[in-house]
Amino acid sequence: MRNQLLHSAFISVSVASCVLAVTSFAQGLPDQAKLEAAIGKKALRIEDEAVLHFYAWRRKTPVEWEGRAVEVFEGVSIRTSFTKTGDECIASGQWLLFGDETIPVVAALTKGGLRVASVVARFPGSVPRAFVLRFFGEGSEDELGNAVASGLRAMEAVREANATPRKGMPTCRAAESAIDERPLEKIFACKSEVKDGVALFRFDGPALLGKSTGSSRMGVGRFVSFAGTNDDARVRVDWTADRHDLEALLDALGKRGFVIESLVPAAPMFDSDTSMLTAVGVGRAEELATVLASKRGRRGEIPAVEATAFRPPQSAELLGCNAGKLADGWRSDATHPGGDRRARWGVDGDSPGIVRMSDPGEWSNRTFNLLWNPELRFRDGTLTVRMKADAGRVDQGGGLIWRVQDADNYYVTRFNPLEQDFRVYRVVNGVREQLQALGQLPYRSGDWFTIVVTQRGDDIACVLNGRETLRVRDTTFSGEGGVGVWSKADSQCSIAGFYMQTPATGSGR
């Protein structure tokens, strides 16, 4: 009974905090037409709430729990809510799922950019297994609506393939375990612990929990156990992963029929981006071990892809990186400032040739910090910046702005190593709208990166590290404007060079 009460309390607190997060910062309604078009359902708005709700009802399905039938899916069983904070939309969802739907749905939502907060049993030990999934996310209406729609499609695809949910967790046929651990030890390149025919592998190594580092001995590592036989093994995975690793792991496990037993924050007290996943599957032991071994390395241990060697353009460096002080004409500004104090920029005395943001100023999650020069006029040509993400809990990285009219109107392209994505936007009257994006990029915080923007008329090309390219056509800002660099919220960065080449200046200024 105590466990049941704790479980119910966890769900109640989780739901309450989820709703509070959505409503506390509400400033306006999202674009209802865009969300309805993406999700394919009508929204409901409760009077006096700046929130749009999308509800879905699942067919009446009896679930057996502790010897009695519980109609867990009767009534409202899928709820997704949206609200608006400035130019960003926020999504929050609570869905009831069957066990065999968990991994496909979580993988689809994660791939769409949403953050899965938890997956926990609705009624522990029920038949079939029923789970509560909670998620949230921030972005445009199009991005969030499409991500939610992909999760719903993943759920529907599972039920179309098999109308009857799996009754229990995956299990092997063997009555007793007799795992031969030797081939598995070769695959994992480490020794196992064997007891009663079950082989357990422990993968030591630190796991980043906010600003703290914990070890696998603290319960935040990675463990895999094999029971049954090598030809018919039941594999249990206890895996600590950040959301980027989690996406790849779920994709691999989902293809092999694994089912999530639980997914919870590894260390919520640290405001960590790390989750603890428990999943179960069956299959040939060596095949499953090979899959898991390929996902074993932590992001911090995986070598970053080396970017093309940086070669400064044949033009003058304009920011003052090599002059010992910021060049004339540059100003610190902000879109949606959090107060009167702006970000502080200057040449780093300890690192000659580097301009660094030493203080992000007064900021909020909506703040875009700008360092720009209205005297450097740019319409067509090429801009180049060499940057590095130094710090930031909410956001990291940065990028270029051009054709800047003022602090609320410009084009921007940026790289965020926390999200591992490269995007281009237009900002009109302070409202940011994404034009194109690339995700899952192999570059990390603390690494130097180069962004090059080329504009000809209405055609824009943005290139990251000489590799990833965004190409768009947009007519919002057709005339010339200023140029500069951009970061968001608490992101702090260093700049090792800013260059501009235009037809009027030939090789550049």
Index terms:
alpha+beta, Jelly Rolls, single chain, disordered N terminus, 509 residues, 7-stranded antiparallel β-sheet
Summarize, please.
The chain is 18% helix and 41% strand. By secondary structure, the chain is of the alpha+beta class.
Q: Can you tell me about this structure?
A:
With 509 residues, the chain is α+β, with helices and mostly antiparallel strands. It folds into three domains: 1-168, no CATH class; 169-302, no CATH class; 331-501, Exo-inulinase, domain 1 (Jelly Rolls), CATH 2.60.120.560. Helices cover 18% and strands 41% of the residues. It has seven helices and 30 strands. A seven-stranded antiparallel beta sheet has the order 17-20-29-22-23-24-25, with no helix packed on it. A seven-stranded antiparallel beta sheet has the order 18-19-30-21-26-27-28, with no helix packed on it. Strands 1-2-5-6-8-7 form a six-stranded antiparallel beta sheet, with helices on both faces. A hairpin with an 8-residue loop joins β15 (259-265) and β16. α2 runs parallel beside α4 and α5 runs parallel beside α7 (285-294). The termini are far apart. Residues 1-26, 205-218 and 298-306 have low confidence and may be disordered.
